[in-house]
Amino acid sequence: MASILIRGAVVMTMNERDDIFTGDVLIENNRIARLGERLDEVAADRVIDAGGKVLLPGFVQTHIHLCQTLFRGRADDLSLIEWLKEKIWPLEAAHSEDSVYYSAMLGIGELIRSGTTTILDMETVHHTESAFRAIEESGIRAISGKVMMDHGEEVPIALQENTRQSLQESVDLLEKWHGAAGGRIRYAFCPRFVVSCTEELLIGVRDLSAEYGVMVHTHASENLGEIELVEAERGMRNVVYLDHIGLARPNLILAHSIWLDEEEKRIIRERGVKVTHCPGSNLKLASGVAEVPLLLESGVAVGLGADGAPCNNNLDMFQEMRLTAYMQKVRHGPTVMNARTVLRMATMGGARVLGMEADIGSIEIGKLADLQLLDLEDFHVYPSFEADWHSRVVYAATRGDVDTVLIDGRIVMEGKTVKTVDKRIVL
Ligand code: GUN
Ligand code: FE
Q: Which one of 4, 18, 191, 416 is separated from 403 by 20 to 30 angstroms, measured CA to CA?
């Protein structure tokens, strides 16, 4: 049995009680086997001396487009629909098998380097197989799927799909990849957004996702122009329409969800729909400020995501946590969305969104060993037993402080070098 002992770290468990202790963590195979102040009698295959370092659960990012990593810098000064039409869709249409692979590998390298160990990803129409290959080889934990687009005059011909073919290709990918790599890889249906999907496609997704027991990952109510398009065509607001079709269920994950009316909030709450907040993207595309505190207070599971790299961000969860806090503080005052709350969103919150709270999101015995070790030695702080670790991690740590990352009990980054990815992308 392979075992790793992480010794002497400040362990931020992110468990229900938010316990923090200085001590040891033993990993056996891919799970956390023991926690304690000193596990001296253990003879592990590998010992990591983590004295003075901070051990956290790996971040769980619940909205990413790995295929867009190579498009960074193409999002200037446009709002959602124009940006998709002018910048993103033509580039997605031009993607090749190789370019999707490299785009995914680059994105995964950045994600791991900034402490993210699980992602919910949405690919483009073609070459999703390449992204799954990159996910498999890199070692990251991922739920991914091909994007589905069978509707909309604005969509380039090269991305327009036939409804049956879109559903069939999704099922083929699902059957190949769902549960692959010892369960580290899963499939989710990804109808892009209502604007690009026929009702027939969405009904197909509703039935197939129930049949296979998988998640549905889409964008909803990100932008006022998008909402107008949905209302003009379907005669209803976005989430009301998804509910009308029967898609508003606990396996539905909505990215953004900024412009929700009272009925939509009620539907999300009552049906157990999950939400992903993407603050960096919402700022860059001037989409708006989501009502995150209100959603959290009403018991909705809300995770955090960077969205695609062109939304002027670098897939960095440290940045997304800070932006989440700043955006709400400026509106509602300093006590709203404190450091503890945003750190929970980045860990257990994401795990809840994915329905994986029994396996990831916190450091507890029996959970999968998805961990990040931060080296905060350079911090110039007055030594104190009352260090506010949540505040330090959220407001002062950066991705450059991530030293070691484990996913599924495997060391994927060590000494600030991503071992599983860099060798493949340095040409
Ligand atoms: N809505 C539909 N497609 C997209 C996308 O690629 N990115 C964002 N941010 N919103 C979308
Ligand atoms: Fe997105």
A: 18
